[in-house]
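Record passed on here:
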Amino acid sequence: QVQLVESGGGLVQTGGSLRLSCAASGRTVSRYAMGWFRQAPGKEREFVAGINWSGGSTRYADSVKGRFTISRDNAKNTVYLQMNSLKPEDTAVYYCAANHRQLYSSASSLRGEYDDWGQGTQVTVSS
C-alpha cells in the first residue's frame, strides 16, 4: 500500500495560482500512474488530471485544460498539480491517487482505476 499526503492547498483569489504536491511513501510510485481528483460540497468526486508512470503522457478534464498542469518527480516520489487562472468553481478538496495494480500504465480518468488515496487538501478560490 502507498501512503499519499497532499499539501499546498489554501485560499486564493480568482485568477491566482496554487501548486499542490502529493508526497508518496511506503513504496516508490515510479511505476504507477497517478491522478488528481477533486470533490466540491454536495458533488461527486471528479477527475482533474492524470499522468502516466514516466510522466510522458498526461490527460486533463475539459474544465481545467490549459490552466492546470500535472507533473511528477519520480526521484522524489512526488506528484504535482500546478493550478493557474483559478476560478471559484475550482473550489474543492483535492485528492491525489495512485494506480498500483497496473504497472507502467497510462493515466486513467476513472476513480475505480486508482487504489490508494490521500486525505485531501482544501482549495478555496474567492470571487
